[in-house]
Amino acid sequence: MEKNCLLAGVGGQGTVLASKLIAQTTLNQGEFVRTSETIGMAQRGGCVVSHVRIGSKEMSSAIPKQKADIIIGFELAETVRAMPFLKKEGVVVANTSVITPITAALTGGYDSEMMKNYLREEAMKVVFVDGKTLCDKVGSSKVLNVVMLGVCIKEGILPFTKEELIQTITTYLPEKFQKINIKALEAGYNYKNNEG
Amino acid sequence: MSMQLLLGNEAIGLGAIRAGVNVVTGYPGTPSTEVLETIAKHNTGDIYVEWSVNEKVALEVAAGASYAGARVLVTMKQVGLNVASDPLMSLAYIGVKGGMVVLVADDPGPISSQTEQDTRLFAKYAHLPVFDPTTPEEAYLMIEDAFLLSEKYQTPVIFRPTTRICHACASVEIKDNTDKHLIEGFVKDPKWTIFPRLSYQNHIKILENEKSIANSFNTYPYNVITGNGTKGIIASGVAYTYAKEVIKEAGLEVKLFKLTTPHPFPEALALKFLQGLEEVLIIEELEPVLEHTIIQLCGVHHLNIKIRGKDSNDLPHAGEYTYESVQKAIDVFLEREQALASEKVMPVLPIRPPVLCAGCPHRASFYSVKKAMQNQKAIFTGDIGCYTLGNAKPLDMVDTCLCMGAGVTIAQGLSRVEKGTKQIAFIGDSTFFHTGIPGIINAVYNETDLTIIILDNSTTAMTGHQPHPGTGHTMMGSISQKISIEKVLQGIQVNFIKKVNPLDLQKAIESVTEATNYKGVSVVIFEAPCIALAKKIETMIIKECCTGCKRCIKEIGCPALSMQEGKAVIDKDLCYGCKLCTQICKCDAIGVRA
């Protein structure tokens, strides 16, 4: 199986961990997997992109443009920025919450409706997720990454089940974070999206 | 054997453990940091691991252990090699006993570095062999070869991954067996003392060794030739994986040479590759190291082959390569139709430069100095660390930044010619120990009028919170006596030292004012822990009485603050409760969230 999955967000949103969870779960199934991460200075509030390539022994670790099967967008503008990577028939799962950079803080941020419309026009399928409300329900802003993975599993676009991801969470995450992440996964999995 | 998902740096660290490494030293630097951390994490106690104060010290500590026969690994980023270059150049002449691998991570882009220098060129200059892996799983296997080569030829060996290998993960097959290396001990011998006469003799020996090593690289299993045709591509590092994917995707008929040992150059293998070729494209990031070697080789052997790469403008000299840039070069080279990029016009996207975290004490430090100096002419020299981000608006408090430790010294040069301007140098705690101290001694002894602001957040923050002599703990898990920055300053006779918490704004401004009024070297130590290591204090909230004046946002640029419907709002998840904004608000509109 070959599958390219791109995760886009802002430093601090947990894209690196989310990509590791995807990669580890597929590796557990015997697939060869590569990822490419943003680590370092950009993690301080900058743009962060993680590439996950499943079945990629003979490939590079970076997804070429127009080759991503899935884009998981943690922040609306960053999702738009990642769109050149999406395949024609690719799927976008996008958090609708925005993070306003300081440069835009004075003017009140950017036009999120315009971003959503762009995604609707550009992608064959886009699933919008009200990540903020889901995180509030779980009780932590830090679990957005796993909430998003829950939505993706429900949408059937990740090559593993909820139970297989729970297995990875309980094996690889520190014990004190397991419970809340499983709760986050369930919240994402049971999410009913009202936006098209 | 087991398959594990490993970061390139983790793979290298585990590979070094498997190769029986005994002593590991280094200084943190993106993208190299996780190698040493991985070894420390998996250390069963028989490996000595330390973050040294700087790269020169790290290399010398490792050299000593190698003299005694230990297998040693030194880790650093490419600019760290500049700091360690003095001992390394000489060590190339003296040689080693236990295998010594110097891991130097290059950063094409650059993504988090000051330069795009190419360590392969440095290796050539220093007459040292260099390994240049293409993937994490290859790096895992290759690091062992580096140790064995080093021991065989008694020379330091450079191992040079780049960011996209260090920070890429892959399924890596981990081998169970670990090589146990026995340490013979130091044997006294005149060969360990460098003298001109010895250097002359060793110079001859190094050149002979280079020929033998080049020979052994002719049959090195990770140098691989595939494909057929009259056109050939030579590729190295991560660029090789892009080239391979382009060729595979399009089913191209082309000869491909993966070259993982750029120096000393495996000539016989390259000549075999060049046989029957009319044209060659060389794909390598950074300097045209292979390209120039191939040009030279074709000259010596009178080969009529057209060589393309950077010098022919087929590929750029600067910046990192991507699948797309490599694809374009290959398409042109093979006279294929160019894939048309049909990118739609995107909405205007916000610019997202990295910023100091919400609650970061550096923000308060910069702001207090800015306030104290607002009516005076001043130059603010910065240094390397999270606090380089103090250059961003609205703080705008970094006028210069060059390299580790240079803030304190550049300020001294400025003070000699910029009369009537206050010189204020910022330096972090880890940078203070790295290369800051000699510069301060220089300032004191030469009677410079200078104020130094030490931003002491009790960690090496930018690279991910590594310990340093001021933190009181080590990579061996032991608790050490902290080295007091204040006592060091007293010892080198700095006569004005003030220690303040920068988050107490009024006091901080007063301290800076006092320090800058002092004639001579004055130091303000701003002490407050990095928020990534400290527990959240509380969360602030904007009260009803906010007038929407935007003062808080305009003054300090905290990422937790923004405007919504005419009033400031605080992102409760980002806010750390440092209360700097409450001290700035003119209408007392920022309070503690219940």
Sum up the overall morphology of chain A in one term: globular
CATH topology of the largest domain in chain B, what is it called? Rossmann fold
**Rg calculated over all Cα atoms of chain B:** 27 Å
Number of domains of chain B: 4
> What fold name goes in the CATH topology slot of chain A?
Pyruvate-ferredoxin Oxidoreductase, domain 3
Number of helices of chain B: 18
Average pLDDT score of chain A? 92
Principal-axes shape call of chain B: globular
User: How many strands in all of chain A?
Assistant: 6
Beta-strand proportion of chain B: 15-25%
In CATH, the architecture of the largest domain in chain B is 3-Layer(aba) Sandwich
> What is the straight-line distance between the termini of chain B?
54 Å
Q: What is the tally of helical segments of chain A? A: 8
**Over all CA atoms, what is the radius of gyration of chain A?**
16 Å
Beta-strand percentage range of chain A: 15-25%
**What is the subunit arrangement here?**
heterodimer
Strand order of the largest sheet of chain A: 2-3-1-4-5-6
Give the topology string of chain A: H per helix, E per strand: EHEEEHEHHEHHHH
As a percent range, the share of helical residues of chain B equals 25-40%
Fraction of residues of chain A in helices? 40-55%
Beta strand count of chain B: 22
